[in-house]
Amino acid sequence: MQCVYLGSVTVPALPEDYDGDFGGLFALYLLADKLNDAITSNLVIDGILRMSEEVRRVPNGVAITQAYGSTVAGSSLRKLCRDYYVHEATTEVLENMHEDSFPFQFSQDVMLEFARLARNKTPYDGRVKVKCFDRGRCYYHRHDDEHPKCC
C-alpha cells in the first residue's frame, strides 16, 4: 500500500548479523511483477539495492531460489541476483556456494556472465569493479511505453 499511495518502499533497520534474507522485498517484487505493476517493481528494485548497499550482503540461497522459482528468464530480479554474485560477492562467498543451495539456472547465469566478462577481458581480482548499486537507477528497472526510462 505504501508504494501505491506514497510512491516509496521503506527498508526497515536491520540487525548487524543480517544473513542476506531479502525474502520480504523479493516477495513484494514478485507480487508487483505478477500484477504487472512496473512502478512498484522498480521501487522495490531500488529498495533491494539500498538495503544490499547498507548491509554489504548479497541475497542468500533462499532468496535466490524464491526469485528464480517465480520469474522468467531475463527478469530484472534475476539479472540483479546474478550481478550480485558476479560483481558484489567476495571470493569466499563464491567458494562457499553449494550446488544444492541455488537453482541450476542461477548458477548457469553466473557462470555465463563470468565467461562473458572473460571474453571481454574485464579485469577481475576477486571482484568485478562495477558494483550493482553504482550502475545507475534504470539499469535494473522495467521499462515499456507506459514507463519510460527514468534517467
Can you describe this structure in just a few lines?
The chain is mainly alpha-helical and 151 residues long.
Task: Give an overview of the whole structure.
With 151 residues, this protein is mainly alpha-helical. It has one domain. Helix content is 52%, strand content 0%. The protein has seven helices and no strands. The protein has helices at 2-6, 23-34, 38-55, 61-70, 76-88, 91-95, 104-119. The longest helix has 18 residues, at 38-55.
What is the oligomer described by this structure? single chain
Determine Rg (CA atoms, Å): 15 Å
Helix and strand content put the structural class at mainly alpha
- Total helices: the number is 7
Q: How much of the polypeptide forms β-strand, as a percent range?
A: under 5%
In total, the number of domains comes to: 1
Shape: globular
Sequence-ordered SSE layout with sheet pairings:
Layout: H1 2-6, H2 23-34, H3 38-55, H4 61-70, H5 76-88, H6 91-95, H7 104-119
Keywords:
mainly alpha; single chain; 0% strand; 52% helix
